[in-house]
Amino acid sequence: xxxxxxxxxxxxxxxxxxxxxxxxxxxxxxxxxxxxxxxxxxxxxxxxxxxxxxxxxxxxxxxxxxxxxxxxxxxxxxxxxxxxxxxxxxxxxxxxxxxxxxxxxxxxxxxxxxxxxxxxxxxxxxxxxxxxxxxxxxxxxxxxxxxxxxxxxxxxxxxxxxxxxxxxxxxxxxxxxxxxxxxxxxxxxxxxxxxxxxxxxxxxxxxxxxxxxxxxxxxxxxxxxxxxxxxxxxxxxxxxxxxxxxxxxxxxxxxxxxxxxxxxxxxxxxxxxxxxxxxxxxxxxxxxxxxxxxxxxxxxxxxxxxxxxxxxxxxxxxxxxxxxxxxxxxxxxxxxxxxxxxxxxxxxxxxxxxxxxxxxxxxxxxxxxxxxxxxxxxxxxxxxxxxxxxxxxxxxxxxxxxxxxxxxxxxxxxxxxxxxxxxxxxxxxxxxxxxxxxxxxxxxxxxxxxxxxxxxxxxxxxxxxxxxxxxxxxxxxxxxxxxxxxxxxxx
Amino acid sequence: xxxxxxxxxxxxxxxxxxxxxxxxxxxxxxxxxxxxxxxxxxxxxxxxxxxxxxxxxxxxxxxxxxxxxxxxxxxxxxxxxxxxxxxxxxxxxxxxxxxxxxxxxxxxxxxxxxxxxxxxxxxxxxxxxxxxxxxxxxxxxxxxxxxxxxxxxxxxxxxxxxxxxxxxxxxxxxxxxxxxxxxxxxxxxxxxxxxxxxxxxxxxxxxxxxxxxxxxxxxxxxxxxxxxxxxxxxxxxxxxxxxxxxxxxxxxxxxxxxxxxxxxxxxxxxxxxxxxxxxxxxxxxxxxxxxxxxxxxxxxxxxxxxxxxxxxxxxxxxxxxxxxxxxxxxxxxxxxxxxxxxxxxxxxxxxxxxxxxxxxxxxxxxxxxxxxxxxxxxxxxxxxxxxxxxxxxxxxxxxxxxxxxxxxxxxxxxxxxxxxxxxxxxxxxxxxxxxxxxxxxxxxxxxxxxxxxxxxxxxxxxxxxxxxxxxxxxxxxxxxxxxxxxxxxxxxxx
Lengths: 491, 494
What we know:
The complex is a heterodimer. By secondary structure, chain A is an alpha+beta fold. Helix content of chain A is 39%, strand content 20%. Chain A has 3 domains: 5-281, no CATH class; 308-424, no CATH class; 433-489, Arc Repressor Mutant, subunit A, CATH 1.10.10.410. In chain A, strand 10 and strand 11 form a beta hairpin. Chain A is elongated and about 95 Å long. The mean pLDDT of chain A is 92. By secondary structure, chain B is an alpha/beta fold. Chain B has a single domain (2-265, 400-493), classed as Amidase signature (AS) domain (Amidase signature (AS) enzymes, Alpha-Beta Complex), CATH 3.90.1300. In chain B, strands 4-6-5-10-11-9-7-8 form an 8-stranded mixed beta sheet, sandwiched between helices. Chain B has a 3-stranded mixed beta sheet with strand order 1-3-2. In chain B, helix 10 (279-294) links the parallel strand 7 (266-270) and strand 8. The model of chain B has no long low-confidence stretch (mean pLDDT 96). The chains are: A alpha+beta, B alpha/beta. The A-B interface holds A 49, 52-61, 88, 90, 92-94, 97-100, 150, 152, 278, 280-282, 285-288 and B 82-83, 89, 91, 96, 99, 101-103, 105, 206-211, 213-215, 241-245, 320-321, 323-324, 327-328, 330, 332-334, 343-344, 347, 367, 370-372, 375, 379.
């Protein structure tokens, strides 16, 4: 049985999931006017004559947003269309001032595309995209400030969104969550969406249906406006079992729009098919079709950063990182950047060994410290150069790995350079054979009984001698030198 | 003195001001006096006499300093479709009765930048929907003209720019702004014996001009002479980065370049515009042909076979766009609000109360033709026909330079004899809508009088951006027709 099939009382079911993700485009001004897009301003302070749909005001396309959409299309392997058209999606609502949303319906800016989602056990799965189109966001209705009134905030109205529509190729909530994570990572790498789900910069509508394997797709329900990766998982899980119960009881799933309630962890019906809007799409006569040149697309392509999948492959090939380590490092662009800065700053001759060691330190000590102090790569004060220097000190035998952990703790707290700390605290490793030999001679003389045991064949005592020598040297002896000398002396 | 000042053409008044024969304040006062005298015509919704006198005073100062603009001190009026900062702008609708725009339309800003003086805001069919100015929330506008055989009968001025043409024909303004979506400048200009031009789509900015049907709406002037219309057009037109459909072209100095020399000009007569013409209109068209032939133009019979489909095409596309454009009038942010117990109820109450019957009809038609299941049969098909209509013109304009047609099928009709069904009323636009559908410029020139003594107009249509050619050909018609003289003779005879 495929792990993606679910077993009901009456047999197996396959889950089919498609996601429509609304990603707010990173842009200083809105899609069709010069109003600011800053989050959290006083209500209705970031809306102008066009945004409030005053009579006679007209849309003027913000080409910075267009470039962002092109970049996203390229980053998601889609086809950027040389001609796309803005349509009006007509419906009445209080937070939609013009009575229509300007969107792209029949001719989107990007067609097709795909992204590879990362699953357990280093498996990946390619999820194809149907399209990416640009559209305006609506304003916000605030229902809880007054018992009978609704307040409207138009600050968000007109902000540029990309709607990224996947094919119905996901088969579990885990895949849907992996899709959201990967999409968010790519958008953040591209700098086209900040991926801030709490502020609503990335919201998903999930289409979920169930069917018997090998039969046509079932009727789907659409869950609207889910705003975290976790909620996407929860909403889909709930929806799968809701539909499963209906189907197993011989009922029919209704085609409807549902809302996810994160406090209850369940979805509920918002409107059914009969209440569905007839949006009366037609090309917006206030805007000419958007025509792009191949040169413009190439100019945008020239600004593309290295994307996570490529970076991951490179880290594995160049530094021999494991797929898991490389995956964690590229998962957030800030981590990848910090990692690469550290590797660049390292002066170690054994470069790829340094790179591997840096990965271990980053994912071990640095992540632990971040967790403990509730910080992130962006908010921590550790410079990449300090971590690089610490690793260099280990590699050139100035300090041992064990001592390095103490140095790390001190450097994390104080912000001081590890080299300076090593000197300050007298932690420099001793490789002088004379001093070590002296300590070993003293030890062997004192512990003659143990030496006899060792020589009689109790070889596991070797570790004991190493430990005692290190203790005598206050941990600063070069372990390699200690090992070599002990082996020689014990015959 | 005052009466004679309002008899001047725009260009003559300009010369008078430049020659210091009178002041802008005198000129403005003369117009304000006539406006007061002729309030019965109901041409103005809002008179802005204080503002006008203030502007006139400033104009006089600039004229004295020699820093005048192209329209310095010239009193004109503005169709109430153009937003004017701080001055109520209604679009002829109750739903905007209390609307005072905090911004100025680009077209009117261009006029004020050139020194023009605003007399007031002109009556119009609600949201520019109508052909008789009977659809205004501010009451009908009367045509300043009367029939000789029935002088007591009140006549319509045409629409939707009824206030604009009545004000200019009635000497209540030297010129006026107007707008034309399917004939709203040219048809009323013909009914009131004035010149009206609908420029190429995109020549004048639509920013701040309240939308009826965005892909068809175009601002243009109404004036008493061809030269006046040329001067107004060159000031109103501009490339506007705030209107994405605005054309990025240099605006020629139409007035300086104007000439009535039409020798060698190829005039096309579309056969579809001559079918079922009244005898009177046929005679008028023949006169036009004769005048232009005499002036050295050549006449060519041409065909625009898609023409019969223009009117139904127009009455699908225009209402479709209007149904969406007018959705913003929801009672929430400005304009009329009639409360309700729910959001939907407030929408219903507000829009039922705020919109007149013709506007409601067109919103319903537009909503219908865009709805699922009907879109392909109506809207999409209409768009295809629109393309074919434009191709008709493109082909014909490879053979001829200008087309000559009547502007309207009839003379102005009495208010109490208005067609009872909307479709007959829509037939008023039969000769004018094609021009809007093809984004072309069209001009109506008064050239004759009907048997009952009412003005009749001929229309000239040119390829895109051929305004200069249209002004030139119109001037040739104007000079040959001597319309003013015909009117004088008529009154002598009467």
